[in-house]
């Protein structure tokens, strides 16, 4: 589904391509070269408060039964002080540190040491060595696509341990959840700081670096486009795709095991959350090669936004539904459960088929059928930085004729399903749909700004043909 992303990056004003024959401004790829006051304020806000937001959510569940208002009320009325809340917060432990080091080491080994074999026996799956997009330095990086394999091996070992070996409890993640948070923060800040130092002193490709002159912006949004160690360890692909997303489904399984331990059953709401989010995760790994063409890989640099975000923001805030259901087990009525399941599956279908239509259109250069008909297109022309003129086509058939980002509409439907599975007792599990709505609307605007500068008047024709962004007839 939507490329999983972290705290919303600040908006930038620099284009990523050239608009119909105009001269390329410096910095026409990736993120901004210049930092305006709004971008800088956004960066400082996120650097200061994003870690606190994660801590607040997890602390609220641990100490206040997932109530988001109770800690504020307690502090405002003087019933507790910040020192009291902090004193009740579990510190990092030796067990958690060992567990986290083992986890990261295992995922690194799966990433760099075990060539993909899934593509050899799974029809339709594209894995193994694949090429990414051309970078501004003219480099075409190669990637070992083996995320599905890593996910399968990891979960196979988890189930073997849970049913046969019993080396550790299946609740081990929940039982160490806050101590593991400190370990994840340490790794997130360490890798982000290392990436910045590397960008300054020993970049993989100096031509693929960007310096804005602003320390905070460089630290958050990154300097290097594709920092690597050796030929195969790519920071961006590893931290975007592992370890956070591989852990996502394990975290949910641990929450389900804890619910079973505490209440003697796993509720249908917990099952729904596990199943629907597992579909999301498996879709990501099945289409990992396609992910090489997304904004995350093709435009974002590697800094705190991705480094810390993938280590902390993603695994801790994308799993809030499962965490909430440990503290508040919800058994849905059959109609409610069926409705949530259908909403989630419909959202996934829309998301997947929308992306499939675009992929089919691109692979065949429009020589295909969309919904049984020859696709309608908007012919476009643009000029790249080297002065070469290019031609392109924008699809206006199928789902892409309903809205310009209808894949995001499907993504939001799936996100809402996760939240609705938790009932209506608390606001906390609905953070995800609120966050995803903000994130994806921002992505719409960011992508359309890039396309308007790239295609110029042709983009205006496209907007006239497809006037809505997400919701036909509404937005």
TrEMBL record:
The keyword rRNA-binding is assigned to this record: no
The enzyme's E.C. designation: 1.3.1.21
PROSITE patterns (alphabetical): STEROL_REDUCT_1 (PS01017), STEROL_REDUCT_2 (PS01018)
TM ranges: 37-58, 148-168, 180-201, 302-320, 332-351, 415-441
Pathway(s) annotated for this protein in UniProt: Steroid biosynthesis; cholesterol biosynthesis
Membrane topology listed for this record: Multi-pass membrane protein
Assigned keywords, A-Z: Cholesterol biosynthesis, Cholesterol metabolism, Endoplasmic reticulum, Lipid biosynthesis, Lipid metabolism, Membrane, NADP, Oxidoreductase, Steroid biosynthesis, Steroid metabolism, Sterol biosynthesis, Sterol metabolism, Transmembrane, Transmembrane helix
Primary residence: endoplasmic reticulum
GO CC terms, sorted: endoplasmic reticulum membrane
UniProt-annotated stretches for the region Disordered: 1-25
Assembly description: Interacts with DHCR24; this interaction regulates DHCR7 activity. Interacts with TMEM147.
Family under the similarity heading: Belongs to the ERG4/ERG24 family.
Function: Component of the microsomal antiestrogen binding site (AEBS), a multiproteic complex at the ER membrane that consists of an association between cholestenol Delta-isomerase/EBP and DHCR7. This complex is responsible for cholesterol-5,6-epoxide hydrolase (ChEH) activity, which consists in the hydration of cholesterol-5,6-epoxides (5,6-EC) into cholestane-3beta,5alpha,6beta-triol (CT). The precise role of each component of this complex has not been described yet.
Full protein name: 7-dehydrocholesterol reductase
Native source organism of the sequence: Tupaia chinensis (Chinese tree shrew)
Phylogenetic placement of the source organism: Eukaryota, Metazoa, Chordata, Craniata, Vertebrata
């Amino acid at each position: 589904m939507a490329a999983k992303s972290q705290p919303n990056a600040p908006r930038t004003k620099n284009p990523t391509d050239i608009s119909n024959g105009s001269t390329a401004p410096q910095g026409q790829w990736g993120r901004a070269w210049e930092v305006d006051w709004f971008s800088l304020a956004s960066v400082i806000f996120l650097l200061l408060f994003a870690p606190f937001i994660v801590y607040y959510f997890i602390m609220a569940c641990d100490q206040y039964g997932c109530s988001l208002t109770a800690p504020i009320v307690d502090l405002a009325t003087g019933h507790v002080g910040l020192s009291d809340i902090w004193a009740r917060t579990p510190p990092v432990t030796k067990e958690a540190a060992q567990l986290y080091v083992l986890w990261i080491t295992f995922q690194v080994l799966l990433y760099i040491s075990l060539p993909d074999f899934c593509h050899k026996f799974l029809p339709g799956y594209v894995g193994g060595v694949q090429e990414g997009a051309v970078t501004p330095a003219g480099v075409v990086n190669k990637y070992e696509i083996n995320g599905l394999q890593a996910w399968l091996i990891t979960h196979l070992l988890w189930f073997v341990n849970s049913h046969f070996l019993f080396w550790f409890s299946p609740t081990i993640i929940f039982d160490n959840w806050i101590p593991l948070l400190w370990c994840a923060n340490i790794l997130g800040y360490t890798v982000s700081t290392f990436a910045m130092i590397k960008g300054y002193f020993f970049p993989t490709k100096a031509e693929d670096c960007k310096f804005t002159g602003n320390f905070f912006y460089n630290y958050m949004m990154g300097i290097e486009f594709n920092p690597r160690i050796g030929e195969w360890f790519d920071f961006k692909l590893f931290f975007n795709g592992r370890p956070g997303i591989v852990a996502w489904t394990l975290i949910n399984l641990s929450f389900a095991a804890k619910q079973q331990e505490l209440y003697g059953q796993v509720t249908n709401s917990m099952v729904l959350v596990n199943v629907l989010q597992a579909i999301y995760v498996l879709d990501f790994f099945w289409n990992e090669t396609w992910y090489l063409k997304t904004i995350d890989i093709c435009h974002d640099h590697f800094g705190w936004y991705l480094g810390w975000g993938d280590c902390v923001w993603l695994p801790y805030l994308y799993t809030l539904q499962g965490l909430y259901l440990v503290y508040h087990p919800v058994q849905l009525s059959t109609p409610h459960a069926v409705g949530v399941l259908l909403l989630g599956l419909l959202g996934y279908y829309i998301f997947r088929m929308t992306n499939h239509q675009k992929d089919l259109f691109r692979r065949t250069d429009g020589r295909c059928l969309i919904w049984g008909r020859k696709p309608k297109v908007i012919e476009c022309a643009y000029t790249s930085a080297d002065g070469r003129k290019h031609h392109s086509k924008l699809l206006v058939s199928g789902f892409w004729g309903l809205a310009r980002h209808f894949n995001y509409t499907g993504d939001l439907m799936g996100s809402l399903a996760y939240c609705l599975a938790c009932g209506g007792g608390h606001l906390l599990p609905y953070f995800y749909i609120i966050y995803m709505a903000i994130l994806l609307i921002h992505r719409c605007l960011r992508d359309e700004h890039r396309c308007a500068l790239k295609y110029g008047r042709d983009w205006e024709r496209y907007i006239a043909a497809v006037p809505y962004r997400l919701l036909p007839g509404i937005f």
